[in-house]
Design goal:
The protein is an alpha+beta fold and about 200 residues long. It has one domain (about 40-205): Umud Fragment, subunit A, CATH 2.10.109. It is built from 2 helices and 14 strands, in the order H-E-E-E-E-E-E-E-E-E-E-E-H-E-E-E. It has helices at about 10-35, 175-180; strands at about 35-40, 55-60, 75, 90, 95, 115-120, 125-130, 130-135, 135-140, 155-160, 165, 185, 190-195, 205. The radius of gyration is 23 Å and the shape is elongated. About 30% of the residues are buried.
Length: about 200
């Protein structure tokens, strides 16, 4: 009777297999972040109390290739280049204090921001005492921090085609579309849909 013996793998073969597994894992992680889901850390207090500084969320980079963003969505995006200026610029010029920015600022920033969409293309928008009015009707926004002394946008503006107006939930501590204008659709990175850190905040948004 013969006994079949399994050929032992060489150390070099085992090492190659390990390297291949790690390489595939790294490649998959890169593909997932680049095209599917991207983690994002909340950098400022502009979305408190919905999202606190240091909290981490997952951003869906796929859905908006098939569906349009909507009012109420929390999105990561690259703001217009005017967001990088000090003070921020609106359109081709510095923004007039107390006036809303109704024109997209040319160019795109390299930074990622996270805000909530408060107005879609074609919406007529104004903001009074931190409250959003769309097409003549005040919106119910239980997520927004009360800010009666916030800068007013009492002149109604119309959101241009293919653009979205972004505001932070913490209206008194948010640099947003009020300063540098509506955001082009193709500047939106994705929809924040889940928070995975800190442990006491884990869950869908």
């Amino acid at each position: 009777m013969s006994v079949a013996s399994r050929k032992q793998e060489s150390p070099a073969s085992s090492l190659f297999e390990l390297v291949a597994i790690v390489a595939v894992a790294v490649l998959l992680a890169f593909v997932i972040q680049a095209f599917l889901v991207k983690p994002f850390r909340i950098p400022s207090e502009s979305m408190e109390k919905t999202l606190n500084v240091g909290q981490r969320v997952l951003v869906d980079r796929v859905s908006f290739h098939f569906t349009d963003p909507h009012r109420g969505d929390i999105v990561v995006f690259k703001p217009p280049a005017g967001a990088d200026a000090q003070p921020p610029t609106c359109g081709a010029a510095a923004r007039t204090d107390g006036m809303p920015c109704d024109r997209p600022t040319p160019g795109q920033s390299d930074n990622n921001y996270i805000k909530r969409i408060v107005a879609e293309p074609g919406d007529r928008l104004k903001v009074l005492d931190g409250k959003v009015y769309l097409n003549g009707r005040r919106q119910s926004e239980p997520f927004a921090e009360n800010c009666p002394d916030c800068e007013l946008l009492d002149r109604e503006i119309t959101i241009p085609p293919d653009h979205f107006f972004m505001m932070g939930d913490n209206r008194g501590q948010s640099a947003d579309s009020r300063e540098w204008g509506p955001v082009p659709r193709d500047s939106i990175v994705g929809n924040a849909f889940f928070t995975y850190w800190r442990p006491n905040r884990i869950g869908p948004l």
